[in-house]
Fold each of these.
Amino acid sequence: EAGVTQFPSHSVIEKGQTVTLRCDPISGHDNLYWYRRVMGKEIKFLLHFVKESKQDESGMPNNRFLAERTGGTYSTLKVQPAELEDSGVYFCASSLRQGPNEQFFGPGTRLTVL
Amino acid sequence: SQKIEQNSEALNIQEGKTATLTCNYTNYSPAYLQWYRQDPGRGPVFLLLIRENEKEKRKERLKVTFDTTLKQSLFHITASQPADSATYLCALLYSGNTPLVFGKGTRLSVIA
C-alpha cells in the first residue's frame, strides 16, 4: 500500500511569490492534516480536513495560507504571497479515523523563501 | 499556554543499554500521549499511544509510561541498537478531537 506522498520535496522561491504544495493521502483515509516545522521549533498543526470539509483550521497562521481538498482526495496548500518566515518543512498526514489514532506522515516539503 | 519539554536535544547511549527519553508538560494533562520516531529527511512514524488512565504500555523493546501527577511520560528502548538512532517526538492530544501538540524531540544516538 502506498504511503502519504507530498510534492514537491523541495521548493525555493522568492519572497512575494506563490507556492502550492500537494499532498496525496493514503487511499481511503478521510482525515488529512497539514503541519509545519520551522527551523529550531517543534512541528505545529495547521489544519485538519475530514473528506473535503475543514474540520479545524485553528493553526493556520494567516490568510496568506489557503488549503483545499476538492473531492476529498488529495489536498493542496497554497502560500500567497510567501514571506521569509514561511520557510520550513511542511508535513501532511492522514488517518482512517479521527481522534487519537495513528497518523501516517508524508516525507514533507522543504520550503525556502529567499 | 501549554509547554512540552523533551529532556534534551540529544542523547548518546551505548549499544545494548536502555535509552530513557523524557517528555514533560505544564498545565493540564492530555487525554492521550503519542510517541513518534523521525529519521532525517522523513516524516514522523507513529510508535505508541498511551491514554491518561494507563500507567504503562509496551511494544516489543519499547515501553512508555504516563504519570499525570508528575506531568511526565517516559519512553524506554531496551537493548538499544544503532538502528534505533533517530529523533523521538512526543505528542499530546487533550481530547479525542483536538490537534496533536508536538514536543521538539530528542535526537538519540546509539553507539556501537
Amino acid sequence: DTEVTQTPKHLVMGMTNKKSLKCEQHMGHRAMYWYKQKAKKPPELMFVYSYEKLSINESVPSRFSPECPNSSLLNLHLHALQPEDSALYLCASSLSWRTGSTDTQYFGPGTRLTVL
Amino acid sequence: GNSVTQMEGPVTLSEEAFLTINCTYTATGYPSLFWYVQYPGEGLQLLLKATKADDKGSNKGFEATYRKETTSFHLEKGSVQVSDSAVYFCARRVDSSYKLIFGSGTRLLVRP
C-alpha cells in the first residue's frame, strides 16, 4: 500500500479565514512534505518534516504554518492568505529524509485551494 | 547546475501510436531519476524510477532507461491509450539534496 490521503479535496476560503489541510500516511514513512502546485507548473517544495521535526522551510510566508502531530499525520494551517495562494497543495511522504537516500516520494491527491 | 529539461508539450497522438517524451538532466553526481504522472484534477503518481546508470524502469507499458552518457531518461510507450492522457513530469534527486527537482511537465493528449 503506497497511499497518502489528503483532506479536504477542495477548499474555498476568504482572506480572513483560518483553515487547515490534513495529510495522512500509514506506510511507516518518517519524512513528510508539503508542496504547492500552480496551474500548468511543476510542484514547488514548501516544507520537509523528518521524524516529526521540521527540517526544511523553503522560505515560505508565515501565513502557512505546518504541524506534524505524529509520524502518520501532517497538517498545514492557513491564515490570512492572499488570492495568489490559490493552488493545488500536495502532501508527500518517503521512508526517510537522509542525504544519500534514494527513497521514493509518494504523493497524495492534493487539496485544491481557492482564496477569495 | 542542477536541472531537468523536458520536451515542450502538448504532445497529441492517436490511440496505439508510439510515444516518446524526452527528458535530460544536469547533475554533478548520479541522481535517482523518476517519472511521475498527473491525471486531470489529481495529484502526482509515481510511474517509474531508476537509481543507477543503465537501469530500466518500467510500469503499465511505459519504460525509461537511465543513460549516463547522454544524461537522459526518455519515457517511451509502444502503444498509447486514451486513458494515458495526462501530464508527465520527469524528476531527479541527488545524494546531496533533499529535493526532487522537476521538469516543467509534458501534457499528453491521446485521441481515439
Amino acid sequence: KNQVEQSPQSLIILEGKNCTLQCNYTVSPFSNLRWYKQDTGRGPVSLTIMTFSENTKSNGRYTATLDADTKQSSLHITASQLSDSASYICVVSLNQAGTALIFGKGTTLSVSS
Amino acid sequence: EPEVTQTPSHQVTQMGQEVILRCVPISNHLYFYWYRQILGQKVEFLVSFYNNEISEKSEIFDDQFSVERPDGSNFTLKIRSTKLEDSAMYFCASRAQGLWSQPQHFGDGTRLSIL
C-alpha cells in the first residue's frame, strides 16, 4: 500500500535553532517528492519538488534531501523564525502530472521565542 | 503575487442538500485540482481537470461529486446529497502549463460542515 510517514509528529524548538523533519515513503511508482508548508487555516504552499535523481534542493532556509534508495527524505530548517511555525507536509507523486499525490500527515513545528 | 481564491470560506449545509464550492484559479494556469482534508487527517486527492475535462480522479470522487469550469475563471466542485462524512476542508489548486515541476498553488480552502 502506498504510504508516506512523517516524524516527528510534532516538534518545539527555540527561535534561531535548526531542525530536521523526516519523511519515509513506500510508494510505487515514484515520480517526485514535494515538501509543503501549511500555516494554520491556510492552504499548503510548495517549498521544494525533487525527482529521484536529485539529492538536495534548497529554498532559502529550507533544504530538502532525498535518498531514493532508502526511500527517505528530510527537510532541514536553518536559523528558525517564529513564522516557521506551521505544519510541514511530505508529498510523494506517483506521476509527473502530480495527479496522484500521496500526502503524509505532516509534522507540526512550533518555534518559540 | 497571484493567488487561488476559494469561496465561501465556511459553508454549513443540512445533510442531503447539494453544495457548490467555488474556486478562482490563477489566471494563466491550465491544470486544476480539488483535494479534501478531513479534520485531523491527511490531505486526499479528489480530482484533476485539464482542457475542460477530468484527467484523473480518486476513488473518493464518485457519482456524488462533479466538477465544472463554467466560464473562463471559475472552477467549481458540486457535492450532491451531502452526507455527514463529507464534512471536511476542501482545497482547490492550480498549476501552470509547462514543466511538471511547476508547483501546485493551493487556495486557503472551504470548510464544509454538514449537519
